[in-house]
Fold this protein.
Amino acid sequence: MSKNHDIPPMHPASAMDFLPLAQLRDVQFIRLRDMVQRAYDHVALFRQRMDERKLKPADLRSMDDIVKLPFTVKSDLRDAYPFGLLASPLQDVVRFHASSGTTGKPIVVGYTREDIQDWTQAMVRSFAACGVHAGDVIQNAYGYGLFTGGLGAHYGAEGIGASVVPISGGNTERQIMLMKDFGVTVICCTPSYFLHLMERAVESGVNLKDLPLRTGVFGAEPWTEGMRERIEAGTAIRAYDIYGLTEIVGPGVAMECVHQTGPHIFEDLFYPEIVDPETLEPLPDGTEGELVLTTLCKRAMPMIRYRTRDITAVTSAKCPCGRTLRRICRIGRRSDDMLIIRGVNLFPSQIEAALLRVEGTLPHYQIIVDRQKGLDTLEVQVEVTNEAFSDTVGALEQLQKRLAHSIESITGLRPAVKLVAPRTLQRSEGKAKRVMDKRLM
Ligand code: DLL
């Protein structure tokens, strides 16, 4: 029995994780057909788009036919604000979440009781995949509220029978105090917020390596292998990548197992495809493109072929854990976060990778793009370690050169690198904001 509840914890390892492929495809297809029928019957937009293609739910004969279905994009959700895409009557919806996005109205998603159970199960499987179990003390520093991170991780943590500390984001001093006093073993937050926690722990005289903390469940924003190395070297934890998005469910669409080989997609619930973002042609496993996801079980708000804008590849290469679920490669970029500087395409994650290759810097940086006399300019501000900061001017100039060179070798662009003192750049409590594009202001 779990400690705080009358209900027993959910079974963490799902048979679905290890299903032979032929069986998995059968399960997916049965679910797809039912879901498409429901969407066709109850959502005007899906019916209209399928009618335009002269496609009926019964025309789907196997998983391969998924490519006949129309895509859904973020503006469809925005245009349907707030309840236009609900496939269930409002009285069956037990929860809403919303994501603010950058402009205009938020996108809203609804969940039935069964949807919440499926999502909880996906999060239970996520925790189980990275070795979290009943008896763990999970500090949940994802934001609670309309953002899916807090409640999504919370239900999964309770579901697996752990004790949850529902602290939400921010309040960093208190986070460190509770982590120490409660014997926290697992932390859930964005990787950028964890860096902030690491830094504040040092300032408060707390050595995270002395605490029972052993696992980090990090996601909601892009992060690099270099960042994982820095986090693991500075603590005694193993850092795992969790992926998800509001439109599909929230966290728990995909999660890394203990082998840290990239997040396994819970394919029996969320069917992945990769398409060419320009032509929208399907691409084979192993090829990079835009991730498209279809919910197979969602009742209140099914999503058909949702274009995530996240660029990755799906791999079916075997993982030592034995899961038959395919994996996504680390998501380093979105098709809509590309900066074009003097005609060169640049992704913020390339800058992170370049900076972390060089000794003497901290993983806190900001990218500032501007236009002067008609020419694009790129400045990268990066914090340096205390030791490096107290170095001679000559040594700092050398460091600056090494950083500019590292960035140039990855991006082809030579930036102005500005070294700043430790703790100068703004810290995030949720998703980090790395880019300031003054050309748009
Ligand atoms: O960020 C859900 C979530 C909460 C995921 C907690 C993981 C942990 P949104 O706010 O809708 O939902 O943002 C979704 O964030 O399309 C990606 O661009 C990005 N993202 C999420 N997880 C990762 C990750 C939540 N592990 C958008 N790596 C997605 C890279 C990620 N990017």
